[in-house]
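Action item from last week, closing it out:
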Amino acid sequence: MAKKKMSIGKDGALDKHGEVLPELSKHASILEYEKLLKVEPPDFSKKAPGSIFWTNIAYFLTNQATSMQYRTFETTGKEKMPNNCGILTVCWHTNGLMDVAPIMIHHPSYLVIGGRHDLVNHPILGFWARRMAVQPVVRQAELMRGGCTEEEAKYLNGRSLIRLSKGISAGFGGILMPEGTSHHESHLIRLKTGPARVLTSAATIANFQGKEKPQIIPVGLHFRKRHLFRTDIWVEFCDPIDYELSQELLDLGVKYDKEEWIEPPAEDVYNVRDLLKINLEKVTPGAINWDTYRGWKLLGHMKSRLESKNVLTWREEVERAREWRELSDKNLGTHSEQQESGPKDSEHSELFSQAHDAAKILDENKLDGRAINNKGTLRKASIKNIGSSLPGILLGIILLPFLLLSSGLILILCTYLGNVTDEGEDARTSIHFVGFILTPFVYWSLMAALSVYLLASMFDIRPAIMGWEQITIFQSVPFYIVIWMLMYPFFWLINKISLSFCLDSLNDLMWEFRIHKLHKKQTFVKLEKLLESLNFKIKELIKQSGHN
């Protein structure tokens, strides 16, 4: 079967439920079915399903990339993941590859991975996907656009599902996104059955083989601004979901020995899917739109200030927003209820409306609730904060030539591609991630060689073809090989300092500048009035809760 080229962008294609299908990017629009059939199966007799060498390299690079990507990285609940059985982790999907990376590096087991069909044929990521035994999946988005026939999709997906199931039953980990596609909504979208089908069949296989029942663990992925470099993240591993298996399903255990997919009973699948929805709803924003969610976070900051508490951490900010979500859901209705019939009339309607408007003004000026002072108003720009950011900025200026030498072209290219990608805003950080993986292997090798050449030219030294033919060590080839190798940790240190401490210092300076700039805008007057009203309403709620 030759390559199948499908339509790109908005084409109005609908799935079987009448919902608009995800748009296809240039890469996703090309389906090479015969290549997908040649994907090697995972080997569950080894420590890792794919190549242990390349898997460990991938884990190392992912660790380095995530440490660069995020300014703060907090993980909770890792102790809830057992090490005596397979674990399927599930999460919502709003940030492309960067939804997988933070879970992957904290998972107690090596992973058996399933992914979009174009992942294994990607010109860069395909190298890693094939060596980590990633199993391809054809989505409705490709099937309904004619990427392959229904029979072909059923065979390929069935093969991938049984391999994932066997991997999890064998004690490996898995990461699946029940929504099936990366999106930009502030709440869960309709869940697919794939993860539920994998879990139920994995549990059946484990039961037949006398192994521990696989666990399914929801994960809350909380990004301050998912598409921004140096944003904050909290990875929240939740309690395992308790699920039951029907006798009808358990009786299928003997049939799963072959590499042939058998559909689990629908009742078991839907039961697990519904449990997933209930549990994932708790660890997602659950707002009708992002401005509403920002409003909840703003209310959390303002209440915290009124209680004379310090600036909230990102985790605390998310937890405070949940408190206001509960009040909003109770009085105005959940996001799904509001989508169907609009918000309910409530005594708190004005509170949440004003919080929405105030948060929107702050967001339009690239600010948020951290800019609110203890009086509940927009604080002044801090001279102290400006002064403390200057050393990092000055150091960044000094290191800039070395940064441009080590990673300049890659940084420019990734920034450009991230801004123009047809994958959507959620793919922006995925492109940065690919850049971080590519840089040490390819770009630094070339730049290290260029650096050695420049050093040799600077000191007017020509390295010999064979080191022992020369009198001085500085003219020997081994000497320059050592210098070439030492450029790697030097480049890493330059990137680490420049893209963390120095860039964070610049962001801190720009934060103070934006606060100062907002004070001079006409919208500042509106913001002050909104904050004043919100302060009064929050104080009243605090008094009421104190009396209860």
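Closing note: The beta strands are 4-5, 30-31, 70-76, 87-91, 114-116, 135-137, 173-176, 215-223, 231-237.
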